[in-house]
Design goal:
Structural class: mainly alpha
Number of helices: 12
Shape: globular
Strand content: 5-15%
Helix content: 55-70%
Distance between the termini: 74 Å
Largest sheet: 2 strands, antiparallel
């Protein structure tokens, strides 16, 4: 068997490793002022290189994408999901049926897709917990103020409403949101007290569907290798010597034979790892009764509390703690049955 050189595959893997390492470093640096300074310095350098008209156009585009409500990422999300499932249906399912794969095994990604689309829609359209004049007093009683991250008697300068503990004004949606977690561009909505449960199931099923497609694709390729005895074959290298088939060459051969399937496998594998990391982080927040906003501001609040304690000579140093966590099951129950939502229903 004569195989062409495929140095681009090695380069692609190297590039993929750089992207993953870069993502990890951004996550680590995002909790420090280092990333902010790095971005500022990089912006200053590029401002001398890129024409001013192009800079303004890029800034307008970025502002539209990330600082205004729009359907760009929803369309992109559905398009990517459609392309993945089209390739899965067109090639993988057909080949797997020829190899007598179990039909239930092949239909599992479609079941996950249907559940995912339901909770994706709910995450998009459900009110995350908008604070209004009508529910302001009720929501002020839900959580205790910690006087550090969430002090008492603070009014939102935009909404002119008293801010309940754990709430935040979203500049994208232009509203204050109860138990604000973050604004998600993929669902074009804030994630707050009343739709966190839908977002959590949406993220869970999205991760599971990507992982399931990756598993089915991998099993198909492994079965092709085993049934055709490819792992026992030999190939001729660049020097004309006969070599035993190794893993790298086998992957290259499969890439040449099933390019779209191998590319899809690489895409859903990377997606599974990224979504899996985000899912684990989201589950950690849910289990400890924190929001993304509180986790991000946690270090600053700790430093603020410690500096206040250090200013009083007679006071013992205080450590900032999460005062809202009441045990695993209670924390999860608060996600899936938010107290504020129940109070609103009782009033109606």
């Amino acid at each position: 068997m004569l195989l062409p050189r495929m140095d681009f595959l090695v380069l692609f893997l190297f590039y993929l490793a750089l992207v993953l390492i870069g993502g990890v470093m951004i996550c680590i640096c995002s909790r420090t002022h280092y990333l902010k300074g790095l971005v500022l310095r990089s912006t200053q350098v590029f401002s001398y290189i890129i024409p001013e008209c192009l800079q303004r156009a890029v800034l307008r585009l970025l502002h539209h994408l990330f600082h205004t409500r729009n359907y760009t990422f929803i369309i992109l999300h559905l398009a990517l999901q459609g392309m993945v499932y089209a390739e899965y249906t067109w090639e993988i399912v057909g080949y797997c049926r020829d190899l007598d794969f179990s039909l239930c095994y092949l239909l599992l990604p479609y079941l996950l897709l249907m559940v995912n689309l339901v909770f994706f829609t709910l995450s998009c359209v459900t009110d995350p917990g908008t604070i209004t004049k009508a529910n302001e007093l009720v929501l002020l009683q839900v959580y205790e103020f910690d006087e550090v991250m969430f002090p008492k008697n603070v009014r939102c300068s935009t909404c002119d409403l008293r801010k309940p503990a754990r709430s935040k004004h979203c500049s994208v949606c232009n509203r204050c949101v109860h138990r604000f977690d973050h604004h998600c561009v993929w669902v074009n909505n804030c994630i707050g007290a009343w739709n966190t449960r839908y977002f959590l199931v949406y993220l869970l099923t999205l991760t599971a569907s990507a992982a399931t497609i990756a598993i089915v694709s991998t099993v198909f390729l492994v079965r092709v290798v085993v049934l055709s005895d490819l792992h026992l074959e030999t190939y001729v290298d660049d020097l004309g010597h006969s070599q035993v088939m190794d893993t790298v060459v086998l992957v290259q051969y499969l890439f040449l034979t099933f390019p779209r399937i191998v590319f899809l496998l690489g895409f859903v594998l990377v997606l599974s790892f990224l979504l899996g990391g985000l899912l684990c982080f989201t589950l950690y927040l849910a289990a400890t009764n924190q929001t993304t906003n509180e986790w991000y501001r946690g270090d600053r609040a700790r430093h603020q509390r410690c500096s206040r304690a250090a200013g009083a000579p007679s006071a013992e140093p205080e450590v900032y703690q999460n005062m809202h966590s009441h045990g695993l099951w209670s924390n999860l129950g608060e996600i899936f049955v938010p107290a504020a939502a129940q109070d609103e229903k009782k009033k109606k």
